[in-house]
Amino acid sequence: MEGTKVMKKVQIEDIIIANHALKDIVTHTPLQKNEILSERYQCNVYLKREDLQIVRSFKLRGAYNKIQSLTEEERKKGVVCASAGNHAQGVAYSCNALKIKGKIFMPSTTPRQKINSVTRFGGEFVEIVLIGDTFDDSSTKAMECCKQEGKVFIHPFDDPHVIAGQGTLAMEILNDIDEEVDYIFAAIGGGGLISGVGTYVKAISPKTQIIGVEPEGAPSMKISMDQNEIVTLDKIDKFVDGAAVKTVGEMNFEICKELLAGVTVVPEGKVCSTILELYNENAIVVEPAGALSIAALDFNKDKIKGKTVVCVVSGGNNDISRMQEMKEKSLIYEGLMHYFIVNFPQRAGALREFLDEVLGPDDDITRFEYTKKNNKDNGPALVGLELKNRMDYEPLINRMKKKGFKYKELNKDMDLFNLLI
């Protein structure tokens, strides 16, 4: 961490040196033009496929570059890191490759798929400690471990060697593309990726605009840049686990203030819609953080029209068991899934009337549960409805009112929604 404070700014030379150190370790991932996205947004959209990296994310670049830079004495002490998953995999792979002992602290909420991958990549050289609910909780415990055991902390983003390592993917982008890049979109968690990409790109192609992307539930960089100081968020939504960070890095914040053209904040539901579209249309499997850059195109479609755009697909470590949750979040965001508490009128045949005269021909009941088990004829019920078209919502509400069905829409009451759904 002392090196972070001494080295105030990462230079392009650091990224070039890092690229040399990584050339036999990381995969030079493809830069692919995506015809579907290009047609949809009327521009040239290229995907930098870091989901095809060895550990299925860009994190190996920064982790290995940092660990290989350690002195022999530091290597003997071993390393410690905190991570929501992808940085942990990068550190684990690096520890195994360099034969260095590592202790990896991960939030207890980390998907099982990522935990298993860390074990596989690290083998006998890593020990996993699951603790806390967020990255920040794990990071606090990891720092305590460093002090107690004298190990070297491998920061996931606020470190010059890590930033330089992440910047090597920007070298690949500019080397692989034959046209001038107008925009590069990349996810922001703590800011390591966007800092490395921005440092290299702005030095080589100063006209290229760098846009960071954050999830709506954890916009720590956007808020910090708006207030011109680092702001620690009180609470965050952990769904986009690879970018759910309460506090961005100091170095990263300073670099982003100088180099970023802006930060786009994307709702978690839109992230889920993007994940499903990428899978269904392109057979590309991405994790929530990996979908951020592509999800942001919808919020920038006017400015990117006719331009050349690169989206960094930062990771593909998606847990298949989360897909049902992602589908539901997507449907809610798209206005196709609605949950109600419906109070059925105290008259015979009310339920049949609801089914026959309130529901539209294409409406589908996905959940029906009486809240009072002993009064099913006229008690309130939890009803989940999936619509075929979001335009069917208003007619549904009008029919419910006309027929005298009193209701409460849970989509608009997040306290009740989180309690019941």
From TrEMBL:
Coiled coil: none annotated. The keyword Amino-acid biosynthesis applies. InterPro entries: ACT-like_dom_sf (IPR045865), IlvA (IPR011820), Ser/Thr_Dehydratase (IPR050147), Ser/Thr_deHydtase_PyrdxlP-BS (IPR000634), TD_ACT-like (IPR001721), TrpB-like_PALP (IPR001926), TrpB-like_PALP_sf (IPR036052). Pathway: Amino-acid biosynthesis; L-isoleucine biosynthesis; 2-oxobutanoate from L-threonine: step 1/1. It catalyses: L-threonine = 2-oxobutanoate + NH4(+). Gene3D superfamilies: 3.40.50.1100. One of its GO terms (biological process) is L-threonine catabolic process. SUPFAM superfamilies: ACT-like, Tryptophan synthase beta subunit-like PLP-dependent enzymes. GO terms for molecular function: L-serine ammonia-lyase activity; pyridoxal phosphate binding; threonine deaminase activity. Pfam families: PALP, Thr_dehydrat_C. Residues 338-412 form the ACT-like domain. Its cofactor is pyridoxal 5'-phosphate. Keywords: Amino-acid biosynthesis, Branched-chain amino acid biosynthesis, Isoleucine biosynthesis, Lyase, Pyridoxal phosphate. It comes from the Bacteria. Its EC number is 4.3.1.19. Belongs to the serine/threonine dehydratase family. Homotetramer. Catalyzes the anaerobic formation of alpha-ketobutyrate and ammonia from threonine in a two-step reaction. The first step involved a dehydration of threonine and a production of enamine intermediates (aminocrotonate), which tautomerizes to its imine form (iminobutyrate). Both intermediates are unstable and short-lived. The second step is the nonenzymatic hydrolysis of the enamine/imine intermediates to form 2-ketobutyrate and free ammonia. In the low water environment of the cell, the second step is accelerated by RidA. This is L-threonine dehydratase. It comes from Schinkia azotoformans MEV2011. The lineage of its organism: Bacteria, Bacillati, Bacillota, Bacilli, Bacillales.
